[in-house]
Write a structure and sequence with these properties.
mainly beta, Immunoglobulin-like, 4 helices, 57 strands, 40% strand
Length: 862
C-alpha cells in the first residue's frame, strides 16, 4: 500500500515538497505516486488546466534517482524503473530514501521545480545470520557466578528498523547453569555472552551444548540458530570500554595534518593479553572518510592524512573499534563526528541538466520550439560560507536566456525564434561568479543542435521554364529539365515532380521524379505549335509542401510538308483565254499553300516548261501569271504550261501542276456597257433622247454580232481539239460549283453584268453573276446555285475593273438532252468549261455514260 505525505505542510522540513513510500523488491514499473493529483491540493500550486501540464524528471548525470525512478511526462505519475534492493542502497537502522527533482511546466512555460523524497521501505527478505554455525567457548572452572563468555552475534542484512531488530533466546536443558546475556552497542548491534549462573565443576561435567536462537522483528519473523559448545576453562570476559560513546569535534579545512584531530581512550579490566587494546577504523566507516583520516592503533590518535578539496562534504563520521588481545578478543565501538569548517573561497561548480534528449554537452531541440520554452535546468554548487558562497550567473546569447529559479538554481529558455535553415548549431556559455575577494568564477559550455521541421516550401529559380524542340522527334525524346530547391533536411528536402494534367486536354509529356521532361509521342508542329502546362513539385515532409511552375514547350517546324496548289486544284487544268487589245495583261493567279511555318512555308513560283516563246511571266512570290507583251494574232494557240512551286526550307519541298491554256487573240476592243447618266431636270432635251436611242441600238447590234462570231469560233475549235483526258469535250458541262448539273437552257446568247460584292481575304474582289433578264433565253433566270462566284484579279486602278463577262452557247450536249454545254469567258480571260470528273454522282442517279460533273475552272483567288 502506497502512502502519500504532503511534506510541504509540515514545519519540520520545508526543503521537500512531496514524500512517497515504496517497498523494496518490487518489480519494475511499480506505481509510486501521482504528482499531478497531490500537487493539486497544495496551497502554493493550483493546476487547473491539467491537460496542459507536463512533468520532466531532471536527471543528474549517471548518479541519483535516474536509475531507479521515472516520471510520466503527461500524467505526473512516478514508477520504478528496476527492482530496488534497500540493503545495497542504504545502511542499517537508517531511513532509506532517494531524492529527485521534477520540473512542472504548462506548455513551454516553467511553473515550479518540485523536490520529491521517496522512502524505500525495507522488506523482511533476510533472516538473521550467525557468522558461524557453531562456536566453542570456555569457562574456567573456578570462575564465580555471573562470569560471561562472549559469543558471536547474528547479523540481519535488512535495513528496516523492525526487520533488522534481532532478539535472542537460549535453548538449553533444564538445570544447565547458563543464561544468555545481551547488551546493545552504540551502533545498534547486540553483543552476546553466555552467562554463568552457577559455579562449575569440571570433574562433574566439562562440556555443555546449548543453542542460541536469533529472531528478527519482521512479519513473519525469521530466525537462525547458533550451536554453542562450552568447555570449562578460563576465558577473557571483559570488554574494552571507551571513555565516551560519541566524540564530536570541529576542525578548519586547512587543519595541520601533523596535529591529532582527536585522541580516543578505552579501558579493559582484563589482565594480560586480555586487557591489551588495539584501535582500528571499523569497516562501517565510508571510504571517503577513510581516505581523509587515519588512526594510531596503539594510542587511539586520529590524524588528517589528506587535504580537503573544494566542494567536498563538510561532515565526516568515523566508527572506531577497540579490541583486546585475548584468545577470544572482545571489542567495542565509538563514533567520531568531524565537522570541517571551510575557510577557503572555492570556484562555483555548474551542473546542467537537459530537458530534451542530449549526449554529453549537446542537446537537441526542434526549430519550431516556442519562445520561452524550458530547455535546461542549471544548478550551481559552492560550499563556501558568507560572500564566498553567494553566486551570480549570466548567459549572453541572442537566442537563449538564463532565468533565476531560486538560490543557485536557474533555467535556460528560448529567447527568440529559431531557424535551422539560417543556423542549425548554437554554442552556449554560462558564467557564474561568487562575491568573494577576489571573486572566483567558472563557466559551463554546451551546445544546442537545432533539428529540422518541414517549414520551407520548395522554390523554383524562375516562374516559367521555356523549352524549344523540333517536331517529328521520336517518343521519349528529352525536352529539358527543371529544378527546385528546398533547404529542409531528410524527407522535407526530398522533392518529387509531376505534371498537372486535365482530362479534356491530352498532354504528350511526362516528367520523372527528378524533373526531367520528355515526350510520350512524336510532336507535330502543324498540329500544335506551343504547349503550355504546369508542373507541381512536392516534398516528402509531414505535412508535405508544394509549389507550381509554368512550362512552355515551343515545337519548332521542320520542312516535312510539300506545298500544294490551291488554284488550279486539278492537274492538268484547262483554260480558254480570249485576249482583247488595250486591256490588262494579267492572266490569272496561281495559288499554293504549305502547312509548314516560317521559311518552310515561304513559296516561290516558276514556269518550268511550255514557255518557249517567253510569252508568259509569273511573279515568283505572288503567283500572278501575265503576258510579257502585247499579243497579236500569231500568238493564238494552245500552250501547255508547267508550273513549279517550292518552299524555302531545307531540304526544299516542291509541287508541280500543268495548265492547258487555249489563247484566242481578238482584233477588236471588248464592248463595254456604259452607264448612262440621266440629268435630273424637269424637262428632257429631245436631242438627248434621240442620241441615247441611236447609241443603244448600235451597241446592241455590235454586241450581238460579236457574240455570234465568238460562239461559232469556239464551237469549231472544240470540235477540232480532242480532250486531253481522252473524253469527248462535248460531254462536259459547266457549273459554278462542283457536282452541280447543268441547266437545260435553250437560248443562244445572254449577257450578265458583274457587280462587286466585297473583298476576299487576299484583298481581291469577289464578283457574283447578276442575271440581266434582257437577253435571258425564254425568260429563264440564274438561281443562286447557278451564279458562279469568281475572284478577279485585283485591278491596278478603277479603270481596269472588269465590268462584264460574255457567255455563249457552244452546242447541244450530245451526252443528254437534259444538259447544256456552255463556255463562260471572264474579262481576265479565264473561262468556265465542263471537265470530265472521276467522282461518283453523289446520289444524282446519272448514267454511267452521262456521269459528267460540272466543274468550274476557277478564276484567280478562288
Amino acid at each position: 500500500m502506497m502512502l502519500l505525505a504532503l511534506i510541504s505542510i509540515l514545519p519540520v522540513c520545508l526543503c521537500v515538497d512531496l514524500v512517497y513510500y515504496v517497498q523494496e523488491r518490487k518489480s519494475p514499473r511499480t506505481y509510486v505516486g501521482d504528482i499531478a493529483a497531490d500537487t493539486h491540493s497544495m496551497d502554493n500550486l493550483q493546476l487547473k488546466d491539467h491537460k496542459m501540464i507536463t512533468f520532466s524528471h531532471l536527471k543528474q548525470g549517471t548518479s541519483g534517482t535516474s536509475q531507479f525512478f521515472r516520471v510520466s511526462k503527461e500524467t505526473g505519475k512516478i514508477y520504478t524503473t528496476q527492482t530496488i534492493d534497500a540493503e545495497s542502497l542504504c545502511s542499517r537502522n537508517v531511513e532509506c530514501f532517494e531524492m529527485m527533482d521534477v520540473a512542472v511546466r504548462k506548455g513551454t512555460s516553467f511553473i515550479k521545480l518540485l523536490e520529491i523524497k521517496i522512502i524505500i521501505q525495507d522488506v523482511n527478505d533476510h533472516q538473521p545470520e550467525f557468522l558461524q554455525k557453531q562456536v566453542h567457548i570456555e569457562f574456567e572452572e573456578d570462575v564465580v557466578k555471573g562470569t560471561k563468555v562472549l559469543i558471536p552475534n547474528a547479523i540481519d542484512k535488512d535495513v528496516g528498523m523492525l526487520n533488522s531488530k534481532i532478539t535472542y533466546q537460549l535453548k538449553k536443558i533444564i538445570k544447565e547453569p547458563f543464561s544468555l546475556f545481551v547488551s546493545k552497542s552504540v551502533d545498534g548491534t547486540s553483543q552476546l555472552a553466555i552467562n554463568l549462573e552457577e559455579r562449575l565443576d569440571r570433574e562433574t561435567k566439562d562440556s555443555y551444548k546449548i543453542q542460541v536462537i536469533a529472531k528478527d522483528g519482521g512479519s513473519p519473523s525469521k530466525q537462525s540458530i547458533l550451536d554453542v559448545h562450552i568447555l570449562v576453562t578460563d576465558v577473557n570476559d571483559n570488554f574494552p570500554v571507551f571513555s565516551q560513546n560519541v566524540y564530536n569535534v570541529s576542525i578548519y579545512s586547512d587543519y595541520d595534518p601533523k596535529e591529532p584531530v582527536v585522541i580516543l581512550t578505552a579501558t579493559d579490566l582484563d589482565l594480560g593479553k586480555n586487557g591489551e587494546i588495539v584501535y582500528q577504523l571499523s569497516t562501517k566507516t565510508k571510504q571517503l572518510a577513510q581516505t581523509h583520516f587515519k588512526i594510531n592503533e596503539k594510542t587511539g590518535q586520529i590524524f588528517l592524512q589528506k587535504k580537503f578539496e573544494s566542494g567536498q562534504k563538510s561532515t565526516y563520521t568515523l566508527y572506531v573499534k577497540a579490541t583486546d588481545k585475548g584468545d577470544l578478543p572482545l571489542s567495542s565501538l565509538a563514533i567520531v563526528v568531524v565537522n570541517v569548517i571551510n575557510q577557503q573561497n572555492n570556484i562555483p561548480k555548474i551542473e546542467v541538466n537537459y530537458v530534451f534528449s542530449s549526449s554529453e554537452d549537446v542537446t537537441s531541440i526542434s526549430e519550431d520550439i516556442e519562445v520561452s520554452s524550458f530547455i535546461a535546468y542549471v544548478k550551481v554548487t559552492d560550499h563556501d560560507v558568507g560572500q564566498n558562497g553567494e553566486i551570480h550567473c549570466d548567459l549572453h546569447h541572442d537566442k537563449f536566456q538564463l532565468q533565476r529559479l531560486g538560490p543557485k538554481k536557474y533555467k535556460v529558455t528560448v529567447k527568440n525564434q529559431l531557424d535551422r535553415e539560417t543556423e542549425d548549431h548554437h554554442d552556449i556559455i554560462i558564467n557564474c561568479q561568487d562575491k568573494g575577494s577576489p571573486p572566483l568564477h567558472s563557466e559551463k559550455k554546451f551546445s544546442v543542435q537545432v533539428t529540422d521541421v518541414n517549414d520551407v516550401q520548395p522554390q523554383f529559380p524562375k516562374e516559367t521554364f521555356k523549352f524549344l524542340m523540333y517536331e517529328n522527334q521520336e517518343s521519349k525524346h528529352h525536352v529539358g529539365s527543371i529544378n527546385a530547391t528546398d533547404p529542409d533536411l531528410g524527407p522535407g528536402g526530398k522533392l518529387t515532380y509531376s505534371l498537372i494534367t486535365h482530362s479534356k486536354h491530352f498532354l504528350p509529356f511526362k516528367i520523372t521524379d527528378y524533373g526531367f521532361i520528355s515526350t510520350t509521342t512524336s510532336l507535330d508542329h502543324e498540329l500544335q505549335k506551343v504547349y503550355k502546362f504546369q508542373v507541381i513539385v512536392q516534398d516528402n515532409g509531414i505535412p508535405p509542401l508544394n509549389n507550381t511552375v509554368n512550362i512552355i514547350v515551343e515545337v519548332r517546324d521542320k520542312n516535312d510538308n510539300a506545298p500544294y496548289f490551291i488554284f488550279p486544284s486539278i492537274n492538268p487544268f484547262t483554260m480558254d483565254i480570249v485576249y482583247y487589245p488595250h486591256h490588262t495583261n494579267n492572266v490569272t493567279v496561281l495559288k499554293a499553300s504549305d502547312i509548314d511555318s516560317r521559311e518552310n512555308a515561304f513559296l516561290r513560283y516558276d514556269i518550268t516548261a511550255g514557255n518557249e516563246k517567253q510569252l508568259f511571266t509569273i511573279n515568283h512570290y505572288t503567283g500572278l501569271l501575265s503576258f510579257t507583251r502585247v499579243l497579236n494574232q500569231q500568238d493564238s494557240g494552245t500552250y501547255e504550261l508547267e508550273f513549279l512551286v517550292k518552299d524555302s526550307g531545307s531540304p526544299v519541298q516542291s509541287a508541280k501542276t500543268v495548265i492547258f491554256l487555249t489563247l484566242t487573240v481578238s482584233n477588236k476592243t471588248s464592248e463595254m456597257l456604259n452607264a448612262v447618266h440621266i440629268k435630273t431636270e424637269d424637262k428632257i432635251h429631245l436631242n438627248l433622247v434621240v442620241i441615247i436611242t441611236l447609241a443603244s441600238v448600235t451597241l446592241s447590234v455590235i454586241i450581238t454580232a460579236s457574240l455570234s462570231i465568238c460562239i461559232l469560233r469556239c464551237c469549231h475549235r472544240r470540235r477540232s481539239t480532242p480532250h486531253i483526258g481522252g473524253g469527248n469535250p462535248t460531254e462536259r458541262c459547266v457549273s459554278e460549283q462542283r457536282h452541280l448539273m447543268c441547266p437545260s437552257y435553250q437560248g443562244n446568247t445572254w449577257i450578265d453584268v458583274m457587280s462587286s460584292k466585297g473583298s476576299d481575304p487576299d484583298g481581291d474582289r469577289n464578283f457574283h453573276l447578276e442575271d440581266s433578264r434582257r437577253g435571258s433565253p425564254q425568260g429563264h433566270e440564274f438561281d443562286n446555285r447557278q451564279r458562279g462566284t469568281m475572284s478577279a484579279l485585283k485591278p491596278h486602278s478603277s479603270n481596269e475593273m472588269p465590268q462584264q463577262i460574255i457567255i455563249r452557247e457552244v452546242s447541244q450536249s450530245p451526252c443528254s438532252e437534259r444538259y447544256k454545254k456552255n463556255t463562260m469567258i471572264s474579262p481576265d480571260y479565264s473561262i468556265w468549261r465542263p471537265t470530265r470528273s472521276p467522282h461518283p454522282d453523289n446520289g444524282h442517279n446519272w448514267k454511267e455514260a452521262d456521269r459528267d460533273h460540272c466543274h468550274r475552272e476557277d478564276l484567280p483567288g478562288m
